[in-house]
Amino acid sequence: MILRAVLAGAALLAAMSCLVDRKSDTLACSTSADCATDRTCADGYCVTQGSSGCPDHCLTCDTTSTPHVCIVSDTAGDNFTCPSGFHCLINCGAGACGDITCAGNSQCTISCNGANACGDITCSNACACDVTCNGGGCQLIHCPHTGANYCTADHTDGPACTSMAGGRCNSC
After folding, report:
1. 170 DSSP assignment
2. Rounded CA gap, 145 and 129, in Å?
3. Counting beta carbons within 10 angstroms of the beta carbon of residue 72, is it exposed (0 to 12), middle (13 to 18) or buried (19 or more)?
4. Which residues neighbour 57 within 8 Å (Cβ) at sequence distance 6 or greater?
5. At residue 126, what are phi and psi to the nearest 5 degrees?
């Protein structure tokens, strides 16, 4: 009888330990490059952030503001999409980001610094998009537009998009 009670107590403790939410040293990181592709490094641990209503790869995310704000610093070479209703501030170093897409009704501020920092950038449906490419940082850039007026000085796609004065398509 006592043995049965001890075994039941041990089983209960083992089951309860599964409910404890604690950080694991196996998920420790210094940068997002230390993490699996579906995780990002935040506060020293590899985490997924998609379940919080924020896109994956957001280093910080504020869903209480309008539009929501997502700050991305490199994606470990992964592609990234800024969803509708978000203002994404994206900063990529050499070889750090894949393709970047700004969905309809999103705003993006993208900085690609260094060789192949960003893959293709597609802002065609965004309501505002500002892209800065330095040192061969960008591949193809598709800027937002209103009719034939693209967010570029020459009113065509790329080499950079701007929603500032002179860019004729900031509709947010």
Report:
1. -
2. 10
3. buried
4. 32, 40, 49, 72, 75, 78, 80
5. -70, 155
- Please give the single-letter amino acid code of residue 13: L
SS3 47: strand
Per-residue pLDDT at 12: 40
**Matching residue, tokens 């083992």:** 14
- CA dihedral (129, 135, 139, 143) in degrees, to 10, reads 20
SS3 label, residue 97: coil
Distance CA(32)–CA(59), nearest Å, equals: 9
Between residues 51 and 72, the one the model is more confident about: 72
Q: How many CA atoms lie within 13 A of 153 on its CB side?
A: 2
Phi, psi of 93 (to 5 degrees): -95, 180
- CA-closest candidate to residue 105, choices 120, 86, 90: 86
Q: Quick check: 92 and 78 in contact, CB under 8 A?
A: no
CA–CA separation, 28 vs 44, rounded Å? 6
Peptide bond into 144 cis (omega under 30): no
Say whether 69 sits in a helix, a strand or coil: strand
pLDDT digits (tens, 9 = 90+) for 57-81: 999 999 898 999 999 999 999 999 9
| Predicted TM-score (pTM) above 0.90 | no
